[in-house]
Batch of 3 targets.
Target 1
Amino acid sequence: MSLYHYYRPTQHSLFNELMRDFTRVDRLNKNFSEVSSQNFLLFLNSGLFQITNTDEKFAINLNVSQFKPENLKINLEGRTLTIQGDEEIKNEHGYSKKSFSRVILLPEDVDVSAVASKLSEDGKLAIEAPKKEVVQGRSIEIQRKEALEEKAQE
């Protein structure tokens, strides 16, 4: 009876070790991306940040109750809307700082000249912009060249 059948020494090869490492990294990456996506969706659905895009308007609602109004900035460059908050707190125990930044590309059909914002008493920031009026199609009459020349002679 041979012991070789029951005892097979493990053969270590560089290729097998690399493949094992790649598999581990791939597994970790999948787990991280799934968690990141889930956290982002939870954040969007939490009520802290909400975007509404209808036929009439584009609206953004954001809970900024942790920030003083003077520490909030809204900037619009072209169609890029930037919302920022930055607050520093000093007390006898030390110093803390909190900040956020959201950058949103407005849809092409938004009237960027009419973007307006409102901050409620309970710290809800609402930014709204109406949609541009859609130019309706129309029929264009075809005039003949002879009719134009006759009008010019008269």
Target 2
Amino acid sequence: MEEEDGVSKLAAVTACTAMALLYVAILYAPTLILRLPPPPSAKTFMIRRFVCAAVSSILSLLVSGLILSWQAVVFPLSLTSLMYAGSLVLKILLLVDSRRENANRGGEGISLQNFLASIVSVASNVLAWRSYVVCCTEQAPLTEELVFRACMIPLLLCGGFKPYTVIRLCPIFFSLAHLNHLMEFYSKKNYSWIKTSLAVGLQLGYTVIFGSYASFLLIRTGHLLAPLVAHAFCNFMGLPVLFSRRNGIVSVAFLAGMVGFLWLLFPMTRPDLYNDRLNNCKCWHGYCSWD
């Protein structure tokens, strides 16, 4: 009897067609979307083509991973968002206030055209791509998760370290990589070592906590997508909002979200939720039994 693959033929063909169209269409993105002038030389033209092909390849990889392992995106993203319940409630309250003020001034509110314009603006922002996708010096998820999770964790596990030890050890390397901001903080803090130490200590503490969580996600799920989407979401949201002077419901939402996060941390990262079609193997590395 033929085994269920989990993806219909229609979905597979549709996804492949979309990736083929994307591979060609994105070559025209620099002039049509980013509004860049025509390339002045053949060298610039080839560089643009190379960048577009790289972006298309990354997007295709993410789409195929999402289709084949949608749990590795939906469950970790939902779990991580619980930590930001207070921040999300605050953003909703600010959005409602903004729309109310705009309506009182006779504005039209948020139209589809404005929404699409904002998406194009973000997509054409090089700094956004640097912060959320490519450059590790700005805590971007892709390169950091590849190096500090996908490369380091298998090495440490195969080196004989236990999963909980790896979760504590790997973030140390992750935090040390952020010490490159030391002199930058030193100049911004008026060359005060005390203020610099406080700022760097706060950043290192945050990177250790997040690094532990990201390592936990990779070991439990066996998917790089899990810490990747969590990293991108945290970069977008920033630090969680604990309270707001405007409304106490923000603090209530934060506490409720943290309780939900701790309650669902292990149930939503059960290895069998993510690897149920791999010949009954709980995860790709075999270290997720937690015995």
Target 3
Amino acid sequence: MANYIHVPDGSPAVPKLDVTVDEHDYRAGALKLIKTLRPHWKPSEVKMKTFTDGITNKLIGCYVGGSMQEVVLVRVYGNKTELFVDRENEVKSFRVLQAHRCAPRLYCTFNNGLCYEFLQGVALEPEHIRSPAIFRHIARQMAKYHAIHAHNGWVPQSGLWLKMSKFFSLVPSHFEDPEMDQRLNNEVPSAACLRDEMIWLQQNLSKLGSPVVLCHNDLLCKNIIYNQKEDVSLPKSLHLLHRAIATDWRCSVCPARTPPGPVTTSRVFFCRPTLLSNVNQTFFCFFFTLHIINFKALGMQGNIKTH
């Protein structure tokens, strides 16, 4: 299977708690989870902070005291997000990455979400990842993901096009709300146009011979955490998937480098060379080189094309 994720033998089991958290009135449900995960915390002293950067889930930080030194993150799944996020695969991804020290600790799952460790630091902005002092760390951390070997000699196949096809199957053709329907027709390319672009991408990218590795697949700036120890973490692992290594680089590089323009799949999923200035090409090549150095240093075998 293209999306086969194997949890290493000996990985700690993840408890499943029979708790449902209301995303609008979450305190009562979150306290039930905290009672199990942190039994020494007094419920009356538990403080909660809602993080607002996510668009598909509600993320709540639970802690006690005046500072957020020990925080339990409670992620409540958004309505119908299971249609495009494989929740079983997400838990497996957490466990795989945790075994390789690439992810925060996963404390438990519950009926409509999961709880995991809070990593201290700040979420990055596009201007941050242009800093050589920071993108070196990003390249190193990405290489750790990409160097995780497939299980028992299995040769991974890219799951990118299957995943994109699944996304396309969920795209609505119209909305009942007139204003939303007008925006869909006026501002979003037609499904036929987007499918043509996806076919173009598949035909062109598949010829490049880019190695298929385990990829993060969601390396937006806000999903990269930078801490005072001058290191970065990539805590979000909803979309872990085997696919061509080059397509994972675009998530981290292109948001900071692609100029404004019409929304098309070739702009969102792949940076065409014509979109990049000389300075941007230099940045991309430097980032690419740093990644390959770290990738090979971690023991990944095979020919990596660098031209």
